[in-house]
Write a structure and sequence with these properties.
The complex is a heterodimer of chains A (about 110) and B (about 120).
Chain A lengths: L3 E2 L5 E4 L4 E7 L7 E6 L6 E6 L3 E5 L2 E6 L4 E6 L8 E8 L4 E3 L3 E6 L1
Parallel strand pairs in A: 2-11
Antiparallel strand pairs in A: 1-3, 3-8, 4-5, 4-9, 6-7, 7-8, 9-10, 9-11
Chain B lengths: L3 E4 L2 E4 L5 E7 L5 E7 L5 E9 L2 E4 L6 E3 L9 E3 L8 E8 L12 E2 L3 E5 L1
Parallel strand pairs in B: 2-11
Antiparallel strand pairs in B: 1-3, 3-8, 4-5, 4-9, 5-6, 7-8, 9-10, 9-11
The chains are: A mainly beta (about 110), B mainly beta (about 120).
Chain lengths: ~110, ~120
């Protein structure tokens, strides 16, 4: 089992819809979780971090964490074509971040 | 302007040649990291350093070497022993996770794309 798992996609949503991106992790003691956005040919950009169970909102983005289920998700409301990118989930291990392989999101007009 | 810079943006290497990728940060971060990304794959950790003059191997260190003589700089050398070096190389930095164990927000530089001719 991979340490951090994401569906590779692509996830296709129409403009204005809610995009839901999911991530599961295997290490029960993990306490810090991050979402990065990576446009094609560019480096990852940190968009959300979450440390406690529940929801954390920042503009159109909401991160959700459920440590009991070892599940973290990212919701993007009012999706725009400019949101089309690969979204990487990362989980903090003892001394490094462990990244998933990413979910490719396509938002079509 | 605070941030992480990497140079060059594109690099071409001949067979049997060593090349060095530059990474500099002015964020006053203690920890620095090197990752490799191949098409359709996630980020794989090559080396990391939590403090000056100290560094540790990541998951795929073979064929690579690093140094950390200054807090701001963490250059990566891709040696001729690395048989398949063509990839996108990313440098990142963060507040030392050893002192703030709960938080480890890593910020990335723009990357260097290495191609073997």
């Amino acid at each position: 089992q991979k340490e951090v798992e994401q569906n590779s996609g692509p996830l296709s949503v129409p403009e204005g819809a809610i995009a839901s991106l999911n991530c599961t992790y295997s290490d029960r003691v993990s306490q810090s979780f991050f979402w990065y956005r990576q446009y094609s040919g560019k480096s990852p950009e940190l968009i959300m971090s979450i440390y406690s169970n529940g929801d954390k909102e920042d503009g159109r983005f909401t991160a959700q964490l459920n440590k009991a289920s070892q599940y973290v998700s990212l919701l993007i409301r009012d999706s725009q074509p400019s949101d089309s990118a690969t979204y990487l989930c990362a989980v903090k291990g003892p001394d490094k971040l462990i990244f998933g392989t990413g979910t490719r999101l396509q938002v079509f007009p | 302007d605070g941030g992480i810079t990497q140079s060059p943006k594109y690099l071409f290497r001949k067979e049997g040649q060593n090349v060095t990728l530059s990474c500099e940060q002015n964020l006053n971060h203690d920890a620095m990291y090197w990752y490799r990304q191949d098409p359709g794959q996630g980020l794989r950790l090559i080396y990391y350093s939590q403090i000056v003059n100290d560094f540790q191997k990541g998951d795929i260190a073979e064929g690579y070497s690093v140094s950390r003589e200054k807090k701001e700089s963490f250059p990566l050398t891709v040696t001729s022993a690395q048989k398949n070096p063509t990839a996108f190389y990313l440098c990142a930095s963060s507040i030392n996770p050893g002192t703030l164990a709960f938080y480890n927000e890593q910020f990335f530089g723009p990357g260097t794309r290495l191609t073997v001719l």
